[in-house]
Design goal:
The protein has helices at about 15-30, 50-60, 75-90, 115-125, 145-160, 175-185, 200-210, 220-225, 230-250, 265-275; strands spanning about 5-10, 40, 65-70, 95-100, 130-135, 165, 190-195, 255-260. It is an alpha/beta fold. It has one domain (about 5-275): TIM Barrel, CATH 3.20.20.220. Strands 1-2-3-4-5-6-7-8 form an eight-stranded parallel β-barrel, surrounded by six helices. The protein is globular, with a radius of gyration of 18 Å. About 40% of the residues are buried. It binds flavin-adenine dinucleotide.
Length: about 280
């Protein structure tokens, strides 16, 4: 069996010049592993607009493929049109199209309600120029009425013109396989790429998972709790768990893996090497 599937890398735009400089080094290190592309997140409401673009520009200038995330909450058709023009100018070919979440204190949701409307608008404005990635949720989006309603919303994004999808991270491989099965039964044929979150800190992972609705299985939670402040044990166990998860996904036919790096090269490099993806 050939286990060498493609993978991609996600960064967030750093808030400081030092962070920007550090990210260039991280990007160069990860580029040696041969990822398909680097995606760069976008603060909903446009809070990171300039920084996201700056990182995307730098990645493209270094000769790599970059995919800016673009969220539509709080946006207008004109502001999205401006973004598309900037992407075109930089040479971007791939966009991760999202609704995002309305930042606290921002009252006006703008002219788009859901990601399917953004995908539809991008297709209307630019035809097949961009490869459009959309988000999907094997464990169901936290605001969805239920799993079936969330699947129906995913199908809408696909029918609006999405090219591929990247999932929220998860640690239960069955949730991914069940989701892919349900999507195929609903007529979805685009690739469903697994989002993978390496584990550097259990405290941070716990906090983040609560807000995005990703489940940390009880057996993992109890094991991490037992490590307390022992960062080395957290790292070693986290690597083992995530390696096994990826191995199961690869054996089950996942088309590609997308690593949420949190701008750190170490764990993603170790995972890619352990999985033999280099
Ligand atoms: P949608 O697909 O619009 O779904 C949002 C909710 O509305 C869901 O509950 C869905 O079931 C429901 N829904 C969708 N369409 C309809 C419809 N037509 N009618 C009724 N209900 C509907 N956040 C950021 O701020 N910046 C980022 O860069 C970022 N990158 C991400 C990358 C990935 C791969 C993933 C998985 C998530 C990312 N997020 C990011 C988080 C994301 O913005 C949030 O999860 C957000 O709450 C939902 O965005 P979405 O595009 O999935 O929304």
């Amino acid at each position: 069996m050939n286990n060498k599937i493609p993978f991609s890398i996600e960064f967030f735009p750093p808030a400081t010049p030092e962070g920007m400089t550090k990210l260039q080094g991280v990007c160069e290190q990860l580029a040696t592993l041969g990822p398909e592309f680097f995606s760069v997140t976008y603060g909903a409401g446009g809070s990171t607009r300039d920084r996201t673009l700056q990182v995307v520009r730098e990645i493209c200038a270094a000769g790599h493929d970059a995919a800016p995330h673009l969220s539509c909450i709080g946006a207008t058709q004109d502001s999205i049109r401006d973004h598309l023009a900037e992407f075109r100018e930089i040479g971007v070919k791939r966009i991760v199209a999202l609704r995002g979440d309305l930042p606290s204190g921002m009252a006006d949701p703008g002219e788009f309600r859901y990601a399917n409307e953004l995908v539809e608008f991008i297709r209307e404005e630019s035809g097949s120029e961009f490869f459009i990635e959309v988000a999907s949720y094997p464990e169901t989006h936290p605001q969805a009425r239920n799993a079936d309603a969330d699947m129906a919303a995913f199908v809408k994004k696909v029918n609006a013109g999405a090219s591929s999808s990247i999932t929220q991270y998860f640690y239960n491989a069955d949730s991914y396989f069940y989701f892919v099965d349900a999507a195929r039964k609903a007529g979805v044929t685009i690739p469903i790429v697994a989002g993978i979150m390496p584990i550097a800190s259990f405290t941070k992972l716990s906090r983040f998972s609560e807000s995005c609705g990703a489940e940390i299985p009880q057996w993992m939670r109890r094991k991490f709790e037992g490590f307390g402040d022992d960062a080395e044990s957290v790292r070693a166990f986290g690597l083992d768990v995530v390696t096994s998860l990826c191995e199961r996904l690869i054996a089950g036919g996942v088309p590609s893996l997308h690593f949420y790096t949190l701008n750190q090269a170490g764990l993603t490099t170790a995972l890619v090497q352990r999985l033999g993806l280099v």
